[in-house]
Automatic annotation (TrEMBL):
Family note: Belongs to the binding-protein-dependent transport system permease family.
Source organism per UniProt: Anaerococcus tetradius
Official protein name in the record: ABC transporter, permease protein
Protein localization: Cell membrane
PROSITE patterns with a match to the protein in the record: ABC_TM1
Topology in the lipid bilayer: Multi-pass membrane protein
Length: 303
């Protein structure tokens, strides 16, 4: 009996050692590429680090300058506007499409593949296509407008339309992955619930809001969190679609673009680190609030 206990302890000890050994590469990767740079960024936000790696401590000077910079508040406003429109609209559209794709209709496999395309298309390719669509001289959108007697417009160079154009692209890019998540969530719901609802005479509309939507809440929580974080980090489509000399750059740049501009274009890496740190705090606060509210809602659904 004693030998059995000793062997069990030895086996458990070896299993623990192998477990740590297997996750060691991941831990090293996280430490080298995420944890160390994170603390370096916070440290350098209190310095005047430049492109040559030269720095000296300057205390809170970067943060004082940042909170007095009108470009920061404009970028913050643009980022919040982008998030407010992109996240809800993307979720509503993708959930609606996923509900349609969950039906047994002819050619459903082809439709699912087509709707997933935005998720596997490179952002650079997406930006090139949409930039061509919005082009002020030969863009597809202007061609359609002129067909109906309208006047062409420089969509990406106009302060009133540049951000709206970016929002449309952001929604389109997020649809594919969101549809897949919602479709997977819908297919995990037991079909017996729908059969029972049909016997009770519930319409498709009522089935969606009394069965599908409540039971989809864990997936919805994940998608909202993912989209919120992604929308606050938007950069690539702005960088590739809006020219640096465009008069609409200020009215469409995000916080991440402001960070890039400070750190790369102007060589003020210390100031850029301060921008990144503030963005991190904003994301953490919003995610915490969202997780707290959604957790209550999900618990209510489960009960």
């Amino acid at each position: 009996m004693k030998n059995k206990k000793t062997n069990k302890k030895r086996y458990n000890s070896q299993a623990v050692k192998w477990g740590y050994l297997m996750i060691l590469p991941v831990l090293l990767g996280l430490t080298v590429f995420y944890i160390i740079p994170f603390f370096q960024n916070i440290f350098y936000s209190f310095t005047d680090l430049n492109s040559f790696g030269v720095w000296k401590p300057i205390g809170l000077a970067n943060y004082k300058e940042l909170f007095a910079d009108e470009n920061f508040y404009m970028a913050l406003k643009n980022t919040f506007t982008y998030t407010i429109f992109t996240v809800p609209l993307s979720i509503i559209i993708s959930m609606t499409v996923a509900n349609l794709l969950n039906k047994n209709i002819k050619g459903i496999g082809v439709y699912r593949t087509l709707y997933f395309l935005p998720a596997v298309t490179m952002p650079a390719a997406v930006a090139m296509i949409w930039k061509w669509i919005y082009n002020g001289q030969y863009g597809l959108l202007n061609q359609l407008i002129m067909k109906f007697g309208g006047q062409p417009k420089a969509w990406l160079a106009d302060n009133n339309t540049a951000l709206a154009c970016i929002i449309v692209v952001g929604i389109w890019m997020s649809l594919g992955m969101n549809i897949i998540f919602f479709l997977a969530g819908m297919q995990s719901i037991p079909k017996q619930y729908y059969e029972a609802a049909k016997l009770d005479g519930a319409s498709g509309f009522k089935q969606f809001f009394t069965i599908t939507f409540p039971l989809l809440s864990p997936t919805l929580l994940f998608v909202i969190t993912k989209d919120l974080i992604g929308s606050f980090q938007v950069f690539d489509i702005i960088f590739m679609m809006i020219n640096k000399t465009s008069p609409a750059l200020k009215s469409s740049q995000s916080i991440v673009y402001l960070f890039y501009q400070a750190a790369v274009d102007f060589g003020r890496k210390g100031y850029g680190a301060a921008v990144a740190t503030v963005l991190f705090v904003i994301i953490i606060v919003i995610t915490f609030i969202q997780m707290t509210l959604q957790k209550r809602w999900i618990n209510n659904v489960k009960n």
